[in-house]
Amino acid sequence: MLQRLQDSAFSMWVVGSDSLWSYPTILTLHTVGLAIIVGSAFVIDLRVLGIGRDVPVQQMRKVFGFFWTGFAVNLASGLVLFAVDAVHKAGQPVFLVKLTLIAVAIVITARIRRIAFGTAADGTSTTPGDARSLAVASLVLWAAAIIAGRLMAYL
Amino acid sequence: MYGFITWLESTGVSTALRNTTWVWPTCESIHFIGLTMLIGAAGFFDLRLMGFMRRVPIAAAKSFMPYGIAGLALNLVTGTLFFIMRPSMYAFSAAWWAKVFFIVLAGLNAMLFETTLGARVLTLGPGEAPPTSFRIVGCVSLLSWFAVLYFGRMLPYIGTGN
């Protein structure tokens, strides 16, 4: 199945085409999405840790909108990048590590949204203590996901 | 210039770094982490300058900036190391020059902003529409940083002369 995915006409176009609009653009989109996802998570986590306390909770909720937009971009571009190299990537341990780190980081970000930026928090500037440890975990996990992603080119 | 590039590539520092296997991937990882810090913090402030999220006091939007600048610092250091390791790969790449152009543009834009509008910006109250000058500065900054990212990532593919 992975082999068929990799040999599909679409995969062949992505890797075979000389056009800058094929593989290089999809790869770059994946990096743009990364900047939006982790950039948003970075600002959210800093806010939880007490930086920018005067940014109202209601406004911070908009940052989660960017976060999920970036995630949609990277889910789509990531699926294509997987398809063109499916057999190799499916068996690459560091790729599975990356996916696991992202899954946990996503769950943590959703939990931060619920406990620190829900409507109950409106008008407050401090965040509950357990949100702080989640924010630290989020920063570490996203950085680790980036490292795992980068090391996919080497391991 | 050609002489400088070949000299740099032949120095002991360049050769030693280039031949240490883990240096390049480590610098790349840090470079990617740095870019998310910069784009996250600067992007938030730029969007506010452009008139989005107007209920955010502008001074509060700016409080993430030192962390964005820390990301920029990481990337200037790792970027310099990349250049030291492979000067000829970069110096003869049109994409790299485009990247440098947008880094300089973003830098000058930020300096211009800090020296001329910087004090005025903090007087802008929540909910107030930003003046056109703020919007332009925010827009130039945001587009420049994404252009830096674009030309960095596309570096192996465009303007290499191949």
Précis, in short:
The complex is a heterodimer of chains A (155) and B (162). By secondary structure, chain A is mostly helical.
Tell me the total number of β-strands of chain B: 0
Task: Determine the N-to-C terminus distance of chain B.
Answer: 20 Å
Q: Can you write the helix and strand succession of chain B as a string?
A: HHHHHHHH
How much β-strand is present in the residues of chain A?
Answer: under 5%
Largest sheet of chain A: none
As an assembly, this protein is heterodimer
Mean of all residue-level pLDDT scores of chain B: 93
Structural class call of chain A reads: mainly alpha
Mean pLDDT of chain A: 93
Question: Greatest interface and its residue counts?
Answer: A-B, 36 and 32 residues
Compute the gyration radius of chain B: what is it?
18 Å
Element-by-element helix/strand order of chain A: HHHHHHH
Helix content of chain A: over 70%
> What is the number of helical segments of chain A per DSSP (H or I, 4+ residues)?
7
If helices are DSSP runs of H or I spanning 4 or more residues, what is the number of helices of chain B?
8
The tally of strands of chain A reads 0
Please outline the major beta sheet of chain B: none
Structural class call of chain B reads mainly alpha
Radius of gyration of chain A: 18 Å
The coarse overall form of chain A would be: elongated
Distance between termini of chain A? 24 Å
